[in-house]
Design a protein that fits this description.
The protein is an all-beta fold and 182 residues long. 0% of the residues lie in helices and 38% in strands. A four-stranded antiparallel β-sheet has the order 1-2-3-4, with no helix packed on it. Strands 5-6-7-8 form a four-stranded antiparallel β-sheet, with no helix packed on it. A four-stranded antiparallel β-sheet has the order 9-10-11-12, with no helix packed on it. A hairpin with a 6-residue loop joins β5 and β6. It is globular. About 8% of the residues have low confidence.
Amino acid sequence: IPAHTACVYAANFSPSQPPTLASCSSDGFLKIWDTRSPTSPSGVPSLSLPAHPTEVLSLDWNKYQPHLIATGSVDRSIRIHDLRMASATPSPTPSLQPPTTVASLLGHEYAVRRVAWSPHSANVLASASYDMTARIWNIDTGALGGAAGMGQFENAGMGGGRLAGIYDQHTEFVVGVAWSFF
């Protein structure tokens, strides 16, 4: 699939819809692909979302709410995107605040290298960054859904979530994060 105009950093299949694939790239876009579609091999995604104004390094599907995808970027932010809010007409360029963004998590000092939703809870997300930290976030995914959900938890400048913990004992970049199934 000729997916993006630049380096593709991550691609994940949906845990609830096996033929659905999401990809993100240094072009700033999050793209959703239906691998059953005859147009996918020719490079036409089902959805093309301007996720961040800079490189998007990571993505992960919410395991309990399949319409939510988290992305991490060079712009130091994590964004939660609601695919139900996507327009059929894609924007030609990444925007500062795309219409699909229902929460922005701010707190990392450098690029966010990895995001991962918890396999145990719909509202817990982990992130890893070049700022040598891993962080755990709480997001009220039940409140997300359009303008009412945006900024629901604007406390402490986090813009959409609550920081539950910071793990800062690393001495080098943190480039991965994983959840135990136990």
